[in-house]
């Protein structure tokens, strides 16, 4: 009983209230008056998801037919009626060599998802076997002062997801370490504010692609002697620089707009500069700082795909790009799988930040 | 020399054409151990006056002398109780007071500081709420925390800016008694800003009305010769109380009426009538 209350509280706190409603339904605890809210919170989203999949299925089918008809007609015009008939039979048989290449249907996407998972299992088994095989040799190599042999095979889809998450968190951390202290200084000092204002206004709207190129120019030269793969460094720095602006602006605004009453308290208590910043200014601007950080994280995740694609960093961005270039039969379906994975992870990241934000914020209306 | 002295104070906000003189020619002197109340309408510049005395603002003209030395900036010698409590919402009751005490007595050990905090929280009878945050407290409790915070710094003078303005009548009465009790214990100098004449008479030795701003200035002072400790119910029958109360209210009402009549004169309508207005009938 106690556990369910805490679980309900946690899901509600995270803005995932419908989970507890669903759970109540299955445990039979739903009251009659809750039924309306249950309908709204659980049934309506479920119906809309089904509707979405239905529309998608029908749309994909229509596009498939258009593409197929066009192909057959083209074969008819170029190669004659026999070739057209053969192609028609080929398409109807479902052979992968002659399938029309268009928007994949939901079931194709689901199949691709499963095949990606299978692929991941195969690769991880392979990797585990490799590590086991080289363990003894590596020990010897390390003892001799040589580098260990590492697995250099193709990364699986799941590996790429983790690579992307690693890049985003590194970029987010960089943004946090630059933007929060800088924002505090800018917010506290009008002089610094006017010194940095042009800088912020000009660089804020710069596109991720351009940031990537700028970082590439600099990092390439700095790491000129190194043989290491610099794609991770370049992509996380680019992500950080692209996404830090929201935090910078929000922190500066939060710090410069601290309630005058709190500043008066700090003055009357004669708090020192350090105390004033850490005991009054920062706590009071935390809600705005976290709003900024939340935007930063979602921007970071959004620009990540484009930047990984450019930097050839083996994450989700590169996965999408390679599948697009690949043009295999299930490439389109894999791209859609990646799209959903990107969307769902973005949603979860947003919830994560919201949870942290709720935990650290105080209610301003109740404050005074 | 008086304990606190304000000489020909002027305070102007804004510059050039937009300048508004909020306070003009304020002269005030308070003796040590005295309890003075300043009564005035809302918007008459009371908070500005308080901020000049506690050092948050500087006068445009004139000098504020505290123990003979000009006031520059805030000081721990002058404790302030703000109109809107001004507690830090992310700190608990104890932490709010601790922060103030730690700044005032930086040399004391943590244990000594905690003892001071506990004493003052106990004094305003909030010991059960010491670990609560301001938003979990009622308005009266929050104001008691603010009182405890100001007093825990052991200021020589205590400045109160409409401290009970936002409270209901019952809580107000209780807190008035509590403040008087604390003040009576070691007779600190006290300055109370209020919009409630009864509160001023009940608590203060002297009442000075603030004529409404812009260009607010202090009116004639009224001495309250009622023995302490004062009793609310007895006071209602006290002849002295009635007279003083009526005199102050009459004075304030006169100012109010004066203001109204001035306003009337400011918009004299031209003596015009529409063309052929009479002929229509």
UniProtKB/TrEMBL annotation, chain A:
Keyword Transmembrane recorded: yes
Keywords for this protein: Cell membrane, Membrane, Transmembrane, Transmembrane helix, Transport
Membrane-topology descriptor: Multi-pass membrane protein
Subcellular localization: Cell membrane
InterPro entries: MetI-like, MetI-like_sf
Domain of life per record: Bacteria
Annotated transmembrane regions: 38-56, 167-186, 198-219, 231-253, 300-321, 333-354
Major subcellular location class: membrane
Pfam families named among the record's database cross-references: BPD_transp_1 (PF00528)
Family to which this protein belongs: Belongs to the binding-protein-dependent transport system permease family.
Protein name as it appears in the record: ABC transporter permease
Organism annotation: Flavivirga jejuensis
TrEMBL record, chain B:
Protein name, per record: ABC transporter ATP-binding protein
MF terms (GO), sorted A to Z: ATP binding
InterPro entries: AAA+_ATPase, ABC_transporter-like_ATP-bd, ABC_transporter-like_CS, ABC_transporter_ATP-bind, P-loop_NTPase
UniProt signal peptide: none
ABC transporter domain span: 4-237
CDD domains reported in the protein's UniProt record: ABC_NrtD_SsuB_transporters
Keyword ATP-binding: yes
PANTHER family cross-referenced by the UniProt entry: ALIPHATIC SULFONATES IMPORT ATP-BINDING PROTEIN SSUB, TAURINE IMPORT ATP-BINDING PROTEIN-RELATED
Keyword Nucleotide-binding: yes
Entry keyword set: ATP-binding, Nucleotide-binding, Transport
Annotated source species: Flavivirga jejuensis
Pfam families: ABC_tran
């Amino acid at each position: 009983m106690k556990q369910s209350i805490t679980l309900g509280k946690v899901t509600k706190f995270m803005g995932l209230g419908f989970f507890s409603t669903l759970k109540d339904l299955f445990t039979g605890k739903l009251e009659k008056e809750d039924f309306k809210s249950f309908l709204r919170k659980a049934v309506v989203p479920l119906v809309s998801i089904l509707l979405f999949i239905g529309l998608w299925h029908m749309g994909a089918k229509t596009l498939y037919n258009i593409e197929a008809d066009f192909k057959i007609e083209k074969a008819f015009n170029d190669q004659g009626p026999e070739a057209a008939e053969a192609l028609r039979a080929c398409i109807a048989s479902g052979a992968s060599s002659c399938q029309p290449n268009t928007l994949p249907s939901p079931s194709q996407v689901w199949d691709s998802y499963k095949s990606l998972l299978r692929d991941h299992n195969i690769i991880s088994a392979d990797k585990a076997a490799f590590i086991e095989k080289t363990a003894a040799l590596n020990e010897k190599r390390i003892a001799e002062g040589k580098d260990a042999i590492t697995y250099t095979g193709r990364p699986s889809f799941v590996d790429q997801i983790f690579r992307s998450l690693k890049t985003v968190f590194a970029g987010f951390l960089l943004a946090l370490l630059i933007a929060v202290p800088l924002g505090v200084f800018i917010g506290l000092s009008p002089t610094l504010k006017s010194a940095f204002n042009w800088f912020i206004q000009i660089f804020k709207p710069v596109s991720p692609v351009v940031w990537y190129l700028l970082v590439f120019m600099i990092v390439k030269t700095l790491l000129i002697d190194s043989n290491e793969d610099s794609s991770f460094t370049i992509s996380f720095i680019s992500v950080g620089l692209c996404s830090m602006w929201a935090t910078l602006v929000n922190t500066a605004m939060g710090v410069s707009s601290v309630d005058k009453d709190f500043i008066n308290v700090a003055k009357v208590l004669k708090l020192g500069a350090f105390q004033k910043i850490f005991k009054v200014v920062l706590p009071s601007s935390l809600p705005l700082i976290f709003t900024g950080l939340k935007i930063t994280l979602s921007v970071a995740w959004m620009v990540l795909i484009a930047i990984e694609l450019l930097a050839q960093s083996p994450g989700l961005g590169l996965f999408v790009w390679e599948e697009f270039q690949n043009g295999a039969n299930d490439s389109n379906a894999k791209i859609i799988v990646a799209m959903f994975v990107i969307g769902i992870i973005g949603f979860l990241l947003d919830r994560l930040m919201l949870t942290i934000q709720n935990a650290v914020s105080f209610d301003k209306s109740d404050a005074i | 020399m008086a304990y606190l002295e304000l000489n020909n104070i002027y305070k102007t906000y804004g510059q050039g054409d937009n300048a508004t003189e909020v306070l003009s020619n304020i002269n005030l002197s308070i003796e040590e151990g005295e309890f003075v109340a300043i009564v005035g309408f809302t918007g008459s510049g009371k908070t500005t006056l308080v901020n000049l005395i506690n050092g948050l603002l500087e006068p445009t003209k004139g000098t504020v002398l505290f123990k003979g030395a000009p006031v520059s900036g805030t000081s721990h010698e002058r404790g302030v109780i703000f109109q809107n409590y001004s507690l830090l919402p992310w700190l608990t009751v104890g932490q709010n007071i601790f922060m103030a005490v730690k700044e005032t007595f930086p040399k004391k050990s943590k244990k000594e500081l905690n003892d001071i905090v506990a004493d003052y929280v106990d004094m305003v009878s909030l010991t059960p709420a010491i670990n609560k945050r301001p938003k979990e407290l009622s308005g009266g409790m929050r104001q008691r925390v603010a009182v405890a915070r100001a007093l825990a710094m052991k200021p020589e003078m205590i400045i109160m800016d409409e401290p009970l303005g936002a409270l209901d009548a019952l809580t107000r009465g209780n807190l008035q008694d509590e403040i008087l009790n604390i003040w009576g214990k070691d007779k600190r100098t006290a300055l109370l800003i209020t919009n409630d004449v009864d509160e001023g008479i009940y608590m203060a030795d002297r009442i000075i009305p603030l004529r409404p701003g812009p260009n607010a200035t202090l009116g004639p002072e009224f001495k309250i010769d009622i023995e302490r400790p004062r009793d609310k119910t007895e006071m209602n029958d006290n002849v002295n109380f009635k007279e003083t109360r009526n005199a102050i209210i009459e004075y304030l009402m006169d100012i109010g009426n004066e203001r109204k009549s001035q306003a009337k004169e400011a918009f004299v309508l031209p003596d015009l009538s529409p063309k052929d207005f009479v002929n229509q009938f």
